Amino acid sequence: MAMFDFENLGQKRQAGILAKVSETSTFPVTRRHVLASSTLPFLVAFAGVRRAAGGSQDPVFQLTKSQVPDRRVALLQCVLEDKGFYSSDVDGLFGPQTESATKAFQAAHGITADGVVSIRTGKALGLPFWDTNIMRRLDPPFRDDAKYAQGTQFDFRSLAGLGNFFSGQPDADYDSSNTLTRRALRTNNPGAINISNWQRDSMNGYMGCTLPDRHGNQTAIYEAPEYGVGAWGFLLRKIYFNGSKDKVTVGAIVDKYRGKNSRDPYIDGYKRYSAGKFSEEYEVDLYNNAILARLAIASYSHEFGSWYPLTDDQLMAGFAVTDGYIDATGKDVVVVSPEEMDPTIYIIEPELELP
């Protein structure tokens, strides 16, 4: 059984080694939560994807026999489902059903029906993996007009480069039939953190916030999802656990999120997206970025209802951003007001998505 050696990820990438992990999963899942019939990654890196011929760095998604899910393929399946071409399991595996759905989509859009998702098909689906960046101007509140002048160009991108997820549409209206308009995706804020002064004042890549929902909550918007990950890491380390270097249990972390809601669905979700690793009593070192990355994908995916489409490189880049705010040495360069140290103001309501 392969284990993902996250601590040595950097060295392995430099050596050209593609690191993967899988573990046997026996957890019951719904169709939207399918993780694969026999394998489940803690974190996966570019599984089932080849590079285009001729040295191009454009990603190409195609049929593979690999049983290692790719979180980006899960997003592809969701989008194909939204458009009425896919009705099988959202499992992150580019198998025959995904290939058939891709061919049907291509035929309907005048694209050569080869079942391969390269740049033309990917762009037609609205997926971002072929964009290095998107430059846009925005109106308030998506642009914080107290911080950015009218006409400011925002540079939406992934800090990990081409082939990674990011959104350039934070001002899109939510549409229940369009996964890409989900709040945690369109804002580049995987934890969907409510706006706060410490984000406005100190978080890299902060640019504005969403319109208020029916509870009055507004979600912070970032130029890159890695910046959103960085803010989430800061929230856990500084606000939820007051900068303590002690390990904390998954149950204690969930208690910060759940408010008055039952703990059990959160624990079940965290276990589901970690091959059972994140049980209620499992202790997490919030200053170990490898462990924090595992926790992040379990948390984000549970809230999202399917694999959240960030790659390993993106998660680790995000927590490197967190380290710049508060790290294991005790460095703390971000000031948080006493009223914003209250974890309850960041609780996400467990309801259907709203704008």
Structural description of this entry:
With 355 residues, the chain is mainly alpha-helical. It has two domains: 6-125, PGBD-like superfamily/PGBD (Muramoyl-pentapeptide Carboxypeptidase, domain 1, Orthogonal Bundle), CATH 1.10.101; 134-346, no CATH class. It contains eleven helices and eight strands. The protein has helices at residues 9-14, 71-82, 96-108, 119-125, 183-186, 197-202, 225-240, 250-258, 264-272, 289-304, 312-325; strands at residues 49-51, 59-61, 134-136, 154-156, 206-209, 220-222, 248-249, 283-284. A two-stranded antiparallel sheet has the order 1-2. It has a two-stranded antiparallel ribbon with strand order 3-4. Strands 5-6 form a two-stranded antiparallel sheet. A hairpin with a 7-residue loop joins strand 1 and strand 2. Helix 7 crosses helix 11, helix 9 crosses helix 10 and helix 10 (289-304) packs across helix 11. The longest helix is centred in the middle third of the chain and has 16 residues, at 225-240. The protein starts with 8 loop residues before the first helix and ends in a 30-residue tail after the last helix.
